[in-house]
Amino acid sequence: MRARDEEHKRRQDGSNGPIMAGLEAASVNERTGRSASHTPWQDGERRGVSSLAVKLAKYTAVGGITVRNHVAYIYDFLLRSLFLLVILYVFLQLWTVTFEGEGTSRIAGYRFDQIIWYLIFAEAIIMASPRLSLKVEEEVKKGDIGYQLTRPMSYLLFHYSAYMGEAAVRLVVNLAVGGALGLFVFGVPDWGFGWVGYLVMAAGAFTVNFLITMMIALCSFWIEETWGIEFVYNKLLFTVGGMMLPLETFPETLQKVCAWLPFQTVVYFPSKMAVQFDALLIGKFFVIQWIWIALLSLLLALLYRKGVKKLNVNGG
Amino acid sequence: MSAIRVQGLTKSFTMKHKQPGLSGSIKGLFKPVVSEKVAVQPIDFTVEQGEVLAFLGPNGAGKSTTIKMLTGILHPSGGEADVLGYTPWRDRQRLAFHVGSVFGQKSQLWYHLPPVDTFELMGRIYEVPMNDFRKRRDDLVERFELGNYLHTPVRKLSLGERMRCEIAAALLHRPQIVFLDEPTIGLDVVVKAMIRDLIREMNREEGTTLFLTSHDAGDVEQLCKRVIVINHGQVILDDSVTNMKREYLTHKTIHLKLAVIPEQPLLLPGVEVVKQKGAGLKLSVNTVETSIETVLAYIVQNYRLEDVTIEDPSMEEVITHIYAKAGKEQGHESSG
User: Fold this and answer.
1) Which of A37, A151, A156, A314 to mutate to test the interface with B (most CBs of B within 10 A)?
2) Which domain holds residue A291?
3) Reading across the β-sheet that carries B99-103, which strands appear in turn?
4) Does residue A206 sit in the same domain as residue A95?
5) Residues B31-48: what's their mean pLDDT?
6) Could you list the mean pLDDT of each consecutive 10-residue stretch along chain A, which spans 316 residues?
7) Interface test mutation site (partner A, options B10, B77, B117, B127, max chain A beta carbons within 10 A)
8) Same domain as A55, residue A187
9) Contact between chains at B91 and A33 (C-beta distance less than 8 A)
10) Number of CB pairs, chain A paired with chain B, less than 8 A apart
11) Same structural domain, A57 and A201
12) Contacts of B42 (CB under 8 A, 6+ apart)
């Protein structure tokens, strides 16, 4: 009976998906011995429940509580997203002049309204991304990371859940503010499945953004300031990530380079899918995005393992 | 049965040294000068299940390094430790289910949310089944009298209320060992007493082993039966609190404010006037020679009293005494 339970558990653990598997593997010491279902409560109610469901509940609870916590900041976010309006107004003017100058109805395949909606979606993602590296850097420097490790949960998955929770709240606010502007200027858009495309791509986009930002943040195990690296990364998102301009507007050589970088998956993919939904293309985007997620998860796991080892040996 | 068993546990860190000046910084990049710093010398101790232990020492004595090794965050450089049957640094996650921690200066409650939300999260993190969780939560809410502000955002709670919630949050998963780090820091006298009561009760009713670090002599006196003092990574005292008090908590300070400037000097064995300014006096009383009661009775009889306060020596003073004594003994040993 017991052996069968174990086998069942193992099979379920195996179907964890690349990100979960990668991040789970990251927690040093966490995979030694039995799974985390060994609790004071185990002898009884726990037996029938799969450990995966319990684990999942753990991290969804983290996500849920972050959402609730950040709803308290909602006016803060609203105020901040007013800045979004300023940026969008500037771009609106810029693109009006550009379209007038070109004298065409489309530039690089985008209509005027599509370009502006593209910017609204792109900015919404960038401005919704939580300042993870500040938080983690603080935890590493002050040693709080140690206290986090005394809990029966993976440090990376904890932060991932919290990150996604916060990003969700901020994204909703940004979309409401940016969307209001879009509706005001262009009226109700017709994107078909664009919304679905955007949301599916945005989930992956924030995951990629989390993985890269977390890697940058974990560098604080070795270097004093990670702010500089984060600054560069953000500028890369602005440019080759496709925040300022859709990648189609770039020269061909640059487009080819961008296609091999992860940055496009954060901004360009979701924004493009929102305004020019394409069932075939989204499949391709999805695969590329998740290959990056798998790869970056692996890298993050390695980096984290090295960092925790340093913490274990040298106290951070 | 022992909850914690430590044998020859030791930890040293390698430290990089930077030479002064820019050239030093550049040299350091290529050829760093490293040295080894011993944070914890081989130490041995055992804590029985249900025991309340004070683990004391000045900053940098090796206290938190030891606690980090006992919770599995730090890997030791040598020695062994057994916490509830686990080797902490090998079984950190599994051990985590049985250990709770309260850090007076760090909060685990979510600042903008009511405590009840954090409680629920804790239940999930420690994988407590829903039914058990609710029972346990309601029990703790009742015992800690949290009912009134269970649904108030943490930012609106007073420090005392918050601390009670912190402790309740750490107990939801019925830990067998709780590490308490300065649990009463910054609290007023009434709240301190209440927190201590709760801590005592949890030890008595659930047999929880408590591992307490504090700079507050009151915490140690009122909560703990046994005390371990470490300094420079070495155990310099491992004794009962009663013994420690007998040996080191021998002096109390009395602050007096008299109605008139005293004419006759205060002469009692074991009482020394440390400071006098007009009608205000500061006395140091050796309680072994003369009890506080006797001194107070004498004062009331001979003077007109306006105000009086009695102070325990601070833990710092006690520990300084202990260090001084330990230092002397070591000195004797090395010279002998």
Assistant:
1) A151
2) 84-310
3) B99-103, B177-181, B209-213, B52-56, B226-231, B234-240
4) yes
5) 87
6) 43 40 41 38 46 88 93 85 88 93 92 94 95 87 80 94 95 94 91 91 97 94 88 94 93 94 96 94 96 97 91 71
7) B127
8) no
9) yes
10) 112
11) no
12) B8, B9, B10, B78, B79
A112 Cβ partners below 8 Å, 6+ apart? Answer: A95, A96, A99, A105
- pLDDT recorded at residue B188: 84
Is B110 touching A (CB cutoff 8 A)? Answer: yes
Residue B314 makes CB contacts below 8 A (sequence gap 6+) with: B215, B217
A:69-88 residues touching chain B, CB 8 A cutoff: 69, 72-73
One domain, residues A88 and A63:
no
Report CB contact under 8 Å: B94, A151: no
**Count of domains forming chain A:** 2
Asked whether the beta carbons of residue A40 and residue B173 sit closer than 8 angstroms, the reply is yes
pLDDT at B327: 66
- Quick one: A175 and A290 in the same domain? yes
For B215-227, the pLDDT digits (tens) are: 787 888 889 999 9
DSSP helix, strand, coil percent of chain A (3-state; round to 5): 75, 0, 20
Distance (Å, whole) CA A154 – CA A156? 5
